[in-house]
Design brief:
The complex is a heterodimer.
Chain A: E1 4-5, E2 10-14, E3 19-25, E4 32-38, E5 45-51, E6 56-59, E7 62-67, E8 72-77, E9 86-93, E10 99-101, E11 105-110
Parallel strand pairs in A: 2-11
Antiparallel strand pairs in A: 1-3, 3-8, 4-5, 4-9, 6-7, 7-8, 9-10, 9-11
Chain B: E1 5-7, E2 10-13, E3 19-24, E4 31-38, E5 42-50, E6 53-56, E7 65-71, E8 74-79, E9 88-95, E10 104-105, E11 109-113
Parallel strand pairs in B: 2-11
Antiparallel strand pairs in B: 1-3, 3-8, 4-5, 4-9, 5-6, 7-8, 9-10, 9-11
The chains are: A mainly beta, B mainly beta.
Chain lengths: 111, 114
């Protein structure tokens, strides 16, 4: 049962433009959402998070938006840089319990 | 900079052999998670522990997989007997309960079963 879905396996953008990665979820009890970035041969690293009581959280070039009514969140990266090329995982958690991940989206930022 | 440590980084074994993967969580973290990365399902949750007690291992094939925490500094994931379909990268992650805090991942064990 895939409770967290990332329907785009890959995304390619030009350096300097905006990257938008999308994530949908099915469990309305999720109360904490996160984005992780993963480079080859490394473990995922935490990027940014948002609590379900908010609809936006910003950290430098990264902004996460949460639309609870649509059960949708997105990660915006602006401006995109070649070093942002990685696999991005969306994750969600209920009440400090287990954390569920999506299948990932491979972002390629072209110079 | 505290890290989750996983050993071995790579493991190649023959079908039917026992495989043990180890994880040292970050000191002070009280939750430990095991994930398996697959192409189709991304990061698939296998099991997780809180304060060394198993809370959920419903993601694991029970007949061949087992996860334990012998003490607060060691978590193990065993596969016996291993099968070719178990080939994947296995990640361990640790975190703290209380408040919103992210999980921290190790660099994984890449398992190949021939």
């Amino acid at each position: 049962d895939q409770q967290v879905k990332q329907n785009s396996p890959s995304l390619s953008v030009q350096e300097g433009r905006i990257s938008i990665l999308n994530c949908d979820y099915t469990n309305s009890m999720f109360d904490y959402f996160l984005w992780y970035k993963k480079y080859p041969a490394e473990g995922p690293t935490f990027l940014i998070s948002i609590s379900s009581i908010k609809d936006k959280n910003e950290d430098g070039r990264f902004t996460v938006f949460l639309n609870k009514s649509a059960k949708h969140l997105s990660l915006h990266i602006v401006p995109s840089q070649p070093g942002d090329s990685a696999v991005y995982f969306c994750a969600a958690r209920v009440n400090n319990n287990d954390m569920r991940f999506g299948a990932g989206t491979r972002l390629t930022v072209k110079p | 900079d505290a890290r989750v440590t996983q050993t071995p980084r790579h493991k190649v074994t023959e079908m039917g052999q026992e495989v043990t993967m180890r994880c040292q969580p970050i000191l002070g973290h009280n939750t430990v998670f095991w994930y398996r990365q697959t192409m189709m399902q991304g990061l698939e949750l296998l099991a997780y522990f809180r304060n060394r007690a198993p809370l959920d291992d419903s993601g694991m094939p029970k007949d061949r997989f087992s996860a334990e925490m012998p003490d607060a500094t060691l978590a193990t994931l065993k596969i016996q007997p291993s099968e070719p379909r178990d080939s994947a990268v296995y990640f361990c992650a640790s975190g703290r309960t209380g408040g919103n805090s992210p999980l921290h991942f190790g660099n994984g064990t890449r398992l190949t079963v021939t």
